[in-house]
Amino acid sequence: MKKAYGFILFLALALVLAACSSDSSGKSDGDSESKSGDSDSAGGKVEIFSWWTGAGEEDGLLALIDLFKEKHPDIEIENAAVAGGAGTNAKAVLATRMQGDDPPSTFQVHGGAELNEGWVAAGKMEPLDDFYEENELMDKFPEELIDLVSKDGKIYSVPVNIHRGNVLFYNMKVFEENGIEVPTTFDEFLAAADKLQAAGITPLALGDKEGWPATQVFENILLGVLGPDDYKKLFAGEIGFDDKRVKEAVDKFDKILDYANEDHASRNWQDSAQLVANGEAAMINMGDWAKGYFNNDLDLETNKDFGYFAFPETDGDFMVITDTFGLPKGVENPDDVKEFLKVLGSVEGQDAFNPLKGSIPARVDADKSKYDEYGKDAMEDFNNSRLVPSLAHGSAASEGFLTKVNQAVNIFVTQRDADNFTQALQNAASEL
Ligand code: GAL
Questions:
Q1: Residue 4: its pLDDT value, please?
Q2: In 57, 61, 146, 218, which residue has its Cα 20 to 30 A from 259's Cα atom?
């Protein structure tokens, strides 16, 4: 073991020396027109921190990085992604680094509370108003998104995408073979689930090894029961968790869980999506990163192998999840980081990233022809729906509240004690 550490230390030293002796692109001296006079580029490295690693997650990011490298061969990129859906592990690593004043050059952060009540409130982010002005970005994003990345009148990050959280993806062959119609109400969903179960098919795939996918199902049920206005009021603390509709949502959640695969606690989101892909399960509620996973990793075709519909009783609503990147205070080469943000915020960058990621572009002027039918439908829905922020993905409420809800959901999924769960939600509300 000691030998291994010695080797790593040696390697690190060798890399540092190599980095010092050449420019940051690794180019030979001869072909570099670059930047020796540009002091802001002296560090020359942009470290991008996210949780987009592996299947279903990283394709979009890699495309964006390639595009950036084409445009800026002189700036080195370090892809510092930490695996784990919804940032399960990455957020903890990030917190340690931020507390230790060792921020990455830029990091993935959800618009809404995660950015504003988290890093901005802690004084850790640079405002980007000038950057928006200089790059004429102010009118390039929907106002609602600008609001999600703003606090006290200042803008703090650049959205790369919009994911939708209230979607059910389904195996089209399984639906057809079992004579299932797309359910729109909760009762229709239960009827379809009964029929599928009787045919020996798991109605709903769930993979809550990491907790959050179950919270996501629950938030969609809350949205269906409360409607978009009261859903927002719930997380704004204006409606209490003792409201009888919360109990109704808990009961519905309880019912739905009866239709999930038994091994849900040992699967992550990709593992559970595979159950739908191979026909063992019929449906899955997952953000539309699952669409990217189906297309790119599992080679499934949209509207041929898998279809999609809004979570029952949430048609006309759009659960917004937006991944954004900002500029932490204290990074060495802010101008290089801004170059990355510029590419990420450009039409070209968004159209390289989003068709692979399964999301739609955050920009209003992206090239629609680059997106398949799902993408086009999602863009139209976004424009015509009532938008609500996702709790499971950090936008609706503080990280402290979300952590408690995730814990409560986790206990409920195993114990199925509705009173206990409702009480735990009421207790968590003190974090709002
Ligand atoms: C979300 C994130 C998505 C996707 C998903 C699964 O929180 O916004 O981009 O990565 O987690 O990890």
A1: 38
A2: 57
Judge if the beta carbon of residue 35 lies within 6 A of ligand 1: no
Q: Measured between alpha carbons, how far is 351 from 344 in angstroms, rounded to an integer?
A: 10
Tell me: the pLDDT tens digits for 168-177?
Answer: 999 999 999 9
Answer yes or no: same fold for 4-162+321-379 and 164-319+393-431: yes
57 lines ligand 1 (CB under 6 A): yes
Q: Is the beta carbon of 289 within 6 A of some atom in ligand 1?
A: yes
Residue 58 is given by DSSP the state S
Atom of ligand 1 nearest to the CA of 359: 9
Whether ligand 1 lies within 6 angstroms of the CB of 366 is answered as no
**Sheet (strand 360-361) strand order:** 360-361, 161-164, 317-321, 386-389
Q: What is the pLDDT of residues 105-129, one digit of tens each?
A: 999 999 999 999 999 999 999 999 9
Average pLDDT, rounded, for the chain: 92
Going from N- to C-terminal start, the domains of the chain cover 4-162+321-379, 164-319+393-431
Tokens representing residue 106 in the block: 């830029």
Regarding the beta carbon of 163 and ligand 1, being less than 6 Å apart is answered yes
Distance from the alpha carbon of residue 60 to the mean position of ligand 1, in angstroms? 12
Q: In the structure encoding, which two tokens stand for residue 187, read together?
A: 């009762």
pLDDT (tens digit per residue) in 312-353: 999 999 999 999 999 999 999 999 999 999 999 999 999 999
Give the homologous superfamily in CATH for domain 4-162+321-379: Periplasmic binding protein-like II (3.40.190.10)
pLDDT of residue 284: 99
**pLDDT at 44 (0 to 100):** 83
Q: Is 179 left (phi over 0), alpha (psi -120 to 50) or beta?
A: left
Residue nearest to atom 9 of ligand 1 (CA): 323
325 Cβ closer than 6 Å to some ligand 1 atom: no
Full-model pTM:
0.90
What is the maximal distance between C-alpha atoms in the chain?
72
Cα(316)–Cα(30) distance, integer angstroms? 58
Give, using CA atoms, the residue closest to atom 7 of ligand 1.
86
Ligand 1 centroid to Cα of residue 86, in Å, is: 4
Digit-coded pLDDT (tens) for 378-388:
999 999 999 99
Is ligand 1 within 6 A of the CB of residue 293? no
Question: What is the CATH T-level fold of the domain 164-319+393-431, as seen in this structure?
Answer: D-Maltodextrin-Binding Protein; domain 2 (3.40.190)
